[in-house]
């Protein structure tokens, strides 16, 4: 398939609505959101995009125009499903549910329709294992918040064709994303492997009493965290010299956390019900007002970084 016009998003939750909104940036796109229950698509998108409107990134008129390209259905036999060029699944992170969803879609969609799963952790190869046309299946991991974070990881399965990968990469670029092709279907894909390597060490430092949580976060925010958007790790390694990188690793790696199991501290917190925002306490204590401010501040920061 050389071009995509009709886009189907399966799952009308927050991520599904955000993906639909991003896809609506192309005027030629016709987007359908499918869900098994009624969803206030327009109201949800308007609420999420309020900060973009207030920041002057888009106007109310532009928002109205983009919403006019997004439709909703509870009918899997509707034209929006049957005529889809590309499907992005964004249902709950449940393997059986995802496999059943794609089985139903394969019975209804055109033979050349491309299937994408937005799973952040589950194997696209496993999700697609029972499909007849596995060559047109690929992972597309949008990062949250999906309407702001530029990255989409396009993940090859063990059967993805080059044409499918190329088409999806082009589609993501067309809708304003920064797609990265992950050539192997491995747990965590690319960015989550990097992110959780850092989280593992951060938690270990707290667990072993080297520093407390606020100190660890402060150290990151006020050092390499500042330069990461401009100078990524491998660029930095070249800048200082791979010989210096070697020497540092030769000395320090033996002391860095390398456990293959969750931290005992994290296990203890889970058992005690300290679930972070969900419970009001994790590494920090959180009031509802602090949680709301943290979420709003994150979006405001991303808008400033991306659009100002």
Summarize the structure in words.
There is one protein chain. By secondary structure, this protein is an alpha/beta fold. It has 3 domains: 6-182, Rossmann fold (3-Layer(aba) Sandwich); 190-264, N-(1-d-carboxylethyl)-l-norvaline Dehydrogenase, domain 2 (Orthogonal Bundle), CATH 1.10.1040; 273-308. Helices cover 46% and strands 13% of the residues. The chain contains 15 helices and 8 strands. It has helices at 14-23, 41-48, 50-54, 60-67, 79-82, 95-108, 124-127, 162-174, 191-207, 213-221, 224-227, 233-240, 242-252, 264-271, 288-307; strands spanning 6-10, 30-34, 70-73, 86-89, 114-117, 137-142, 151-156, 178-182. Strands 3-2-1-4-5-6-7-8 form an 8-stranded mixed beta sheet, sandwiched between helices. Helix 7 (124-127) links the parallel strand 5 (114-117) and strand 6. Helix 1 (14-23) crosses helix 2 and helix 12 crosses helix 13. It starts with 5 loop residues before the first strand and ends with a helix.
List segments where confidence is low: pLDDT < 50 over at least 5 consecutive residues: none
- Tally of contiguous helical segments: 15
Count of all domains? 3
Radius of gyration over alpha carbons? 21 Å
Q: Averaged pLDDT, please?
A: 97
Largest sheet: 8 strands, mixed
The N- to C-terminal Cα distance equals: 36 Å
Shape: globular
Family: Belongs to the 3-hydroxyacyl-CoA dehydrogenase family.
Organism: Hornefia porci
Pathway: Lipid metabolism; butanoate metabolism
Keywords: NAD, Oxidoreductase
């Amino acid at each position: 398939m050389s071009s995509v016009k009709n886009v189907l998003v399966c799952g009308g939750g927050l991520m599904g609505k955000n993906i639909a909104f991003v896809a609506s940036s192309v005027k030629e796109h016709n987007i359908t959101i499918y869900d098994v229950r009624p969803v206030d698509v327009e109201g949800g998108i308007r609420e999420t995009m309020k900060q973009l409107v207030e920041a002057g990134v888009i106007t109310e008129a532009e928002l109205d125009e983009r919403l006019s390209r997004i439709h909703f259905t509870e009918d899997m036999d509707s034209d929006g499903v049957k005529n889809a060029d590309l499907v992005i699944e964004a249902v709950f992170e449940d393997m059986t549910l995802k496999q059943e969803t794609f089985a139903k879609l394969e019975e209804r969609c055109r033979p050349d329709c491309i299937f994408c799963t937005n799973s952040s952790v589950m194997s696209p190869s496993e999700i697609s294992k029972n499909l007849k046309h596995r060559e047109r299946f690929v992972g597309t991991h949008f990062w949250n918040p999906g309407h702001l974070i530029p990255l989409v990881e396009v993940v090859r399965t063990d059967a993805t064709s080059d044409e499918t990968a190329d088409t999806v990469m082009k589609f993501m670029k067309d809708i304003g994303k920064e797609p990265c092709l992950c050539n192997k279907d491995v747990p965590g894909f690319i960015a989550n492997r990097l992110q959780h390597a850092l989280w593992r060490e951060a938690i270990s430092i707290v667990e072993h009493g080297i520093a407390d949580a606020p100190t660890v976060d402060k150290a990151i925010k006020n050092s390499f965290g500042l330069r990461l958007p401009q100078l990524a790790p491998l660029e930095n390694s070249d800048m200082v010299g791979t010989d210096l990188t070697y020497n540092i690793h030769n000395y320090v790696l033996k002391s860095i956390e390398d456990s293959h199991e969750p931290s005992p501290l994290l296990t203890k917190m889970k058992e005690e019900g300290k679930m972070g925002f969900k419970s009001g306490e994790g590494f920090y204590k959180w009031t509802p007002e602090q949680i709301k401010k943290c979420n709003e501040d994150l979006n405001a920061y991303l808008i400033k970084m991306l659009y100002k």
